[in-house]
Amino acid sequence: MRALLAASFHATYDDLYGPKKVQELIDAWHSTATLEKHLEAKGAEFLVADDGKRIGGMAYARRKDDRPETVVLHQLYVHPDCHRQGIGRDIFAELETCFPGVDLMELEVEPRNTQAVAFYSAHGFVPVEEVEIESGPAKGLKALIMHKPLETF
Q: What is the pTM of this model?
């Protein structure tokens, strides 16, 4: 899993932040301990797409503690070698069904990551605001907040 995240992050963000900063973000956000916490988190879903030989994509989303009717999509990554095969679309479609009673999905995306912004827009997300991250390893970086209303069932 970490190898997929590292490959995806470097392919997407090296040109924007530089390889050193990208590695710092990977080490902070995609450590084995962090991935294990995601797997155990209450109100969360961790999805993996594989072909039996390797992992092609993954997603992690979790209900907001203070607003359980909202789920935050924290991660949706597809290995660079697997782009344009429908993996992201399929993972996202599955993820949308994992949270009964949730009426809003929220995410943050780097505004200059035009492929991701286009993907999320094509899947019904709309930009809400652009913010500057105030703490942690991403302090000072920009994030575009996007929302998508979900049908509750």
A: 0.87
Specify burial of residue 39 (Cβ count, 10 A radius: 0-12, 13-18, 19+): exposed
* CB 109, CB 120: distance < 8 Å: yes
- Domain segments of the chain: what residues? 2-149
Rounded to an integer, what is the distance from CA 77 to the centroid of its chain? 6
Tokens in use for 69? 């009717």
Secondary structure class of 69 (helix, strand, coil): coil
- What dotted CATH number matches 2-149? 3.40.630.30
DSSP state of 80: G
pLDDT per residue of the chain (153 residues) written in tens, 0 to 9: 888 888 998 999 999 999 999 899 988 888 888 888 878 888 899 899 988 888 899 999 999 888 889 999 999 999 988 888 899 999 989 998 899 889 999 999 999 999 999 999 999 999 999 999 998 888 898 999 999 998 765
The Cα 68–Cα 100 span in angstroms is 11
